[in-house]
Design goal:
6 strands, globular, two-stranded antiparallel ribbon, 40% helix, 178 residues, 2 domains
Length: 178
């Protein structure tokens, strides 16, 4: 079986993937897949989602950008639909503040509904005053407290992508069950 080497230049990291080519080599009829369970399919889907998110983060974000966890005050915890509205207003306001400073907002976000609702964001940092943390506090402060972590110098954020996919997939599995 012939292979194709795919190379992805993701900024600070370069990913090389070796995939089988269906165009070359011995052509045989494929046997029907036997005993493929729903769990097997979900594992493959999770692995592909993680790969896609890892590449997205590695390509678009650099060391010094931020991973935010936005939580709600205990007395202000919204329901699921209300949390979506609050989050969409937060993104709109943050985008507007970045634009006023002459920057473009880049972000990736996921929401966890497990235990208490909270949002994970990866955003590009701005080096102008008032600074990213002050902007986030200004916009999110009435809802709760943001927790901020700076992305490290490696430029490889596979562990972060793995965590985000793992936690959100658990959440979706819990909400999908009747």
């Amino acid at each position: 079986m012939a292979y194709i080497k795919k190379t992805y230049d993701l900024g600070a990291t370069i990913e090389i993937e070796k995939v089988r080519s269906g165009r070359y080599g011995k052509h045989t009829l494929h046997k029907n897949k036997v005993n493929v369970t729903e769990d097997d399919v979900s594992k493959v889907n999770e692995r592909n989602a993680e790969k896609k998110l890892r590449r997205l983060i590695n390509y678009n974000f650099k060391p010094g950008d931020l991973h935010l966890v936005l939580t709600y005050k205990p007395e202000c915890r919204p329901e699921r639909n209300e949390a979506k509205k609050i989050l969409s207003k937060f993104i709109k306001d943050l985008r507007k503040e970045y634009k006023l400073l002459g920057c473009e907002l880049k972000y990736v976000h996921v929401t966890e509904y497990k235990h208490t609702i909270h949002h994970h964001f990866i955003i590009n940092a701005i080096n102008k005053e008032p600074g990213t943390l002050r902007l986030v506090n200004k916009i999110w402060g009435k809802h709760g407290r943001p927790k901020l972590t700076v992305l490290d110098e490696t430029g490889d954020y596979a562990a972060l992508a793995h965590y985000l996919i793992k936690e959100t997939s658990k959440t979706f599995k819990e909400f999908d069950t009747p």
